[in-house]
């Protein structure tokens, strides 16, 4: 069992190396599952979101001191900025419960999968990103040609949103 992070799927501005490492772990975990599955070995990956651990608490305390706020206020500010649908940060027990389940016989048919424990951060973040995405091109309006040699006309551009 690997414990990664949602950072591999939702990198933050100043955390590129952390996000790259987590994305690599996510890929490694998925690929390892295909290699060792024939031997009855399961490989799964847990992706915690914003979880207030002892290390996070120390960091939150430093942030609170710099901003002249309480640790709880800084924590809630982060939850609000991340738009966590459940409205709270995660606790170590939230992640431990998922790990306990995945290590049990109840999860004996699960392998090669990633399990987010993030209070809904990723679906919310992806929905927000899609609503502000740049225009997409309707593939049905493109002439039949090689992509590298085609240049769509401006009137072929669509607003972001589901394609039909």
From TrEMBL:
Record EC number: 1.1.1.100
InterPro entries reported in the protein's UniProt record: NAD(P)-bd_dom_sf (IPR036291), SDR_fam (IPR002347)
Gene Ontology molecular function terms on file: 3-oxoacyl-[acyl-carrier-protein] reductase (NADPH) activity
The protein's enzyme class: oxidoreductase
Superkingdom field: Bacteria
Record's keyword terms, sorted: Oxidoreductase
Family: Belongs to the short-chain dehydrogenases/reductases (SDR) family.
Identification of the protein by name: 3-oxoacyl-(Acyl-carrier protein) reductase
Organism for this UniProt entry: Streptomyces lividans 1326
């Amino acid at each position: 069992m690997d414990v990664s992070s949602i950072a591999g799927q939702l990198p933050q501005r100043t955390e590129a190396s952390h996000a790259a490492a987590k994305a690599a772990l996510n890929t490694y975990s998925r690929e390892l599952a295909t290699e060792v599955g024939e031997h009855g070995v399961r490989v799964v990956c847990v992706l915690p979101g914003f979880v207030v651990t002892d290390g996070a608490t120390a960091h939150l305390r430093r942030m609170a001191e710099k901003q002249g706020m309480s640790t709880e206020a800084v924590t809630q500010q982060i939850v609000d900025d991340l738009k966590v649908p459940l409205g709270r940060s995660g606790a170590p027990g939230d992640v431990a419960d998922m790990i306990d389940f995945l290590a049990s016989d109840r999860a004996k048919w699960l392998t090669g999968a990633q399990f987010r424990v993030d209070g809904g951060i990723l679906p919310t973040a992806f929905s927000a990103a899609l609503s502000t995405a740049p225009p997409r091109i309707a593939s049905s309006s493109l002439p039949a040609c090689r992509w590298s040699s085609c240049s769509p006309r401006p009137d072929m551009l669509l607003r972001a949103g589901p394609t039909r």
